[in-house]
Amino acid sequence: MTTQTRNLKLKGREIVVTIFQSDAPVCSIVLAGAAGVVQDYYRDFADWLSRQGCVVVTFDYSGIGKSLKGSLKSVNSDLLHWAEELDAVIQLGRDLSPTYRVMVIGHSLGGQLIGFSKRSLQCERIVLIAAQSGYWRHWKGLKRIRMFFTWFFWVPLVTYSKGYFSAIGYSKIEDLPANAALQWAKWCRHRHYYYCDKDNFKNYFKYFMGNIIAVSFTDDDYAPQNATDWLSDQYSAAVLSKLHFHPAQLQSKKIGHFGFFKRGNERVWPLIMHSFFPLNIGS
Question: Rounded to two decimals, what is the model's pTM?
């Protein structure tokens, strides 16, 4: 497996992209990460996919990881800017393998942003891993109270006071640009989620007509099943399969919101991916 790093420039922003080459490629896969999760977190999974015959592209959203240039306070990116970046990376995936099928895998927020990418309509298949609506009422009991506090108070207060969102207490994510954090909080306060921003964007969820597999896990505190169901149901024209697993069904002790991509859970990867790509991932 060989990797190559590129810088993509668009509308005054620059993002860092990593390309995982394959010796005998049969498809191209773009991996859209979760909010504030650096692309290196997905490296083991991308490496495995490349050994299955896929050219894999990972990237950091502007203001995150290797795509952060200078002070985070100076980054103006919001979630729709990140969707534009995903759109550009999907085009790169097509350019890298023009004769192959193009697919996209979205983790958490990355799975949400796919629906804002017009180029996602040119993809043959989509895999959603723990991708959900963040609307706080999708949770129950004390978790609902925690989500209410997070989106109505904690995220806005921290972001306005610091000029960015400090992710202290969230061990898996980086600090977030202010506009992205505040827009995310706004969506999560509204039962229609991103539709509350009805005047400033176009989305393509209902136009995707390919195959989608939506995967969620019973031990995921950040993506309960009704929240993942809400998001996948937005793809009303797709051929949709929903898979909701207890970790034991996948021969794992714990998966949660982030564990699917960890090397300790690599036995899970073929169980999920080969159910979507029968016999051989490129077949």
Answer: 0.94
